[in-house]
Known about the structure:
Layout: H1 3-19, E1 24-27, H2 30-37, E2 49-53, E3 57-63, H3 67-73, E4 79-82, H4 95-102, E5 109-112, H5 119-129, E6 133-136, H6 138-145, H7 150-175, H8 180-198, E7 219-224, E8 245-254, E9 257-262, E10 265-267, H9 272-290, H10 298-311, E11 324-325, E12 332-335, E13 349-352, E14 356-358, E15 362-364, E16 368-372, E17 377-379, E18 388-390
Parallel strand pairs: 1-5, 3-4, 5-6, 10-18
Antiparallel strand pairs: 1-2, 2-3, 7-8, 8-9, 8-10, 11-12, 13-16, 14-15, 16-17
Helix pairs in contact: 4-5, 7-8, 9-10
Amino acid sequence: MNKKFVSRRIESLKEKLTEEGLDAAIIVKPENVFYFSNFNPVLNSHPCFVIVSVKKGTCLLVHSIRCDHAKEEGAIGNVQLYGKWGSNVSLAIDPVDAIREILEDVPVRLGLELDSINISLYQKILAKLNPATVLDISSPINMMKIIKDAYEISCIKKAAHLVDIGVETAIGCLEKGYSEACASTEGQYRMRKAWSELYNDTEVCGFGTSEGGMIDSLHVWCLSNSHIAYGCDCPKHYTPLPGDLSLPMAWAKVNGYHAENERSIIVNKVAGIRDRAYGAMLEARQAVFDSLKPGFSFESLYLAAAAVFIKHGFGEILPGRVGHGVGCSAHEFPSLAGGNKLLLAAGMVITVEPGLMDKSWGGVRHSDTVLITETGYECLTKLDNKRITINK
């Protein structure tokens, strides 16, 4: 289990709370609850909370129905309950009433994730807890999560192996004449099969919404030609033809941590703007990789790729970013975008995916999941990332 790493994260958060003059924090965002507890309820119709008090310690607050699950899989020994289910004894029916009991009904200087909390819950916290002050701790938590520890990196590496398998399988199926949808289905099945054979001591659940859950985070999908410009959509029962561009993609989570792989595929041969765009994409990727080491800014990576695209005549359709952070979320802070002066540091995990999209001809993009090291980077996705052609 992830207990020692969770303990370190909680201690780091306590230090940040102290620096900000805060007494306690209420963690609400599902991915952050997991980050500070190692517990994912999968279904979030009854939200979970991590209550971090500088002086009184930390507890995991869950609905009574999640009691056994939280105690078995969570890394926090103090599990408290709200709501009613069976014979379990709760602090209160309402979670904020339970939080008031935990914090002993005294005004506190409180940290909240204001970029994640809904207005109804926020108003209830203000009314029932009557905090002396409220401070947004979204940014400090994002900065904590940006550097991955050894446990997180080990999970992301497993997820990277799975997405390689998913995309490689989909490419092979496209070459055999499968449709986008059928190739995606085979890729997804092969990912799950590999997980069951290689990593069956892990789970692949994702993080659900307030009205649903994600039992299986292993996803493969494929878009072709103008459909690529949608960015993300359901694959169709379209079979790519000679002269087409097709883009198989895969996402996976292992023990809560994400990796992705995307590969642009040329069917037989492309010409004109599609050929020029593919070449520019590969050159832009290389420009990013050439600067991928500690000390370079995220903005410099974006500008390096943008300069290549402009040189090749694609200045009118520049991407908004050329990659993003990876962790408990598929699109985690920060973005490889203009204006982001944050410097790369060892332990960060990002995607490198400078791409071009236009409805008139389609799009090109390879995406790799990459770990920043002390001296450079390690590409965690290992699949061929040069010019990929299939013949039909």
